[in-house]
Design goal:
The chain contains 9 helices and 12 strands. By secondary structure, the chain is of the alpha/beta class. The chain has one domain: 3-Layer(aba) Sandwich (Rossmann fold), CATH 3.40.50. The strands form 3 sheets. The protein has a 7-stranded mixed sheet, with helices on both faces. A 3-stranded antiparallel sheet has the order 2-1-8, with no helix packed on it. Strands 3-4 form a two-stranded antiparallel ribbon. Strand 9, helix 5 and strand 10 form a beta-alpha-beta unit.
Length: 304
């Protein structure tokens, strides 16, 4: 695979010396360093490209098999697209932090074909899966705790990413700096700590969130929260029963086991999530659910 050049339009930050600069080839004029290429992708944290404590790279191949047509991924994509259209209608460029196999970026590219898309993933081994779904899309290996951007993107999204990172407050501050003034961040996270089970442990989660916690961390990072809602609300009773079953198990989950679902149940769940999406589009903020969806904005710079 050929190395993908950087295509960024804003100010870059050198991860070696911290200097800021404008360049399309990522060469820092202060120290002369340039990010190495790992597996054909620019790498801003090569020491974490193969292993870290936030996820297992072995999951990617199984995720590719399960994502397409799965009610959870399809339903989440529809909520995300609604959020982008409503709260970032003028966005021309977009960064997904923790893009995984590219299932969200693919959906956005199909529905918003004029937008410049960029995806990052801490595991270099995950990026080839995204590249196959998104030929020509800018993909980089990056640690979300050290984003090499300054006021570059109209929208930054993190979908089920923050719960994998111990220093989630650091990530939100990095996102604040990387999005343009007036730009939008969209975030999904698992909700309700009492739902913690073997599924969370198998997924390398550090926490599940309550709405007040996520809201407070966004405010502390400098964002204005413009909308927050739960989803997977109508399915919450079924989710609770499922998590109770996993708590009783002794054996470890196999890769993708928690996402495996019978086609008839998958179809029913899709229809139920369709009802939820209709409520969310009407402006209803659902009070409880398996996940939280937050939309926040970096305030515009004050006029001098």
């Amino acid at each position: 695979m050929e190395e993908q050049p950087g295509k960024g339009e804003g100010v870059k930050i050198c991860v070696s010396c911290g200097d800021t600069f404008e360049s399309l080839d990522w060469k820092c004029p202060a120290c002369g360093s340039r990010p190495p290429c790992v597996g054909g992708f620019l790498s801003f944290a090569p020491e974490l490209a193969d292993s870290n404590d936030g996820f297992s790279a072995s999951y990617f191949s199984r995720l590719v098999e399960l994502e397409t047509g799965h009610f959870w991924f399809e339903g989440r994509n529809q909520v995300i697209l609604w959020g982008l259209r409503k709260y970032a209608p003028g966005a021309t460029n977009f960064l997904e932090v923790g893009c995984g196999t590219g299932v969200v970026l693919q959906a956005i590219g199909r529905c918003l074909p004029g937008m410049r898309l960029c995806g990052s993933e801490i595991f270099a081994s995950g990026l080839p899966f995204a590249a196959r779904r998104l030929p020509g899309t800018e993909l980089i290996q990056m640690d979300a705790r050290r984003m090499p951007f300054h006021s570059e993107f109209d929208a930054i999204c993190m979908f089920d990413v923050l719960e994998h990172i111990e220093e989630d407050a650091v990530v939100l501050r990095e996102a604040w700096r990387s999005v343009k003034p007036g730009g939008t961040v969209l975030i999904t996270v698992p909700q309700h700590p009492r739902l913690w089970s073997a599924v969370d442990e198998h997924s390398y989660h550090k926490r599940r969130y309550v709405a007040a916690d996520l809201h407070g961390k966004l405010i502390d990072a400098g964002f204005e929260v413009v909308h927050m809602t739960s989803f997977l609300s109508l399915l919450l009773p079924a989710l609770i029963l499922s998590r109770l079953q996993y708590r009783k198990r002794d054996k470890q989950l196999s890769s993708g086991e928690a996402l495996e679902i019978h086609p008839l149940w998958n179809r029913l769940c899709s229809q139920i999530l369709g009802i939820e999406r209709a409520l969310i589009r009407l402006g209803v903020s659902l009070p409880a659910g398996g996940s939280l969806f937050a939309i926040a904005r970096r305030p515009p710079q004050p006029i001098a």
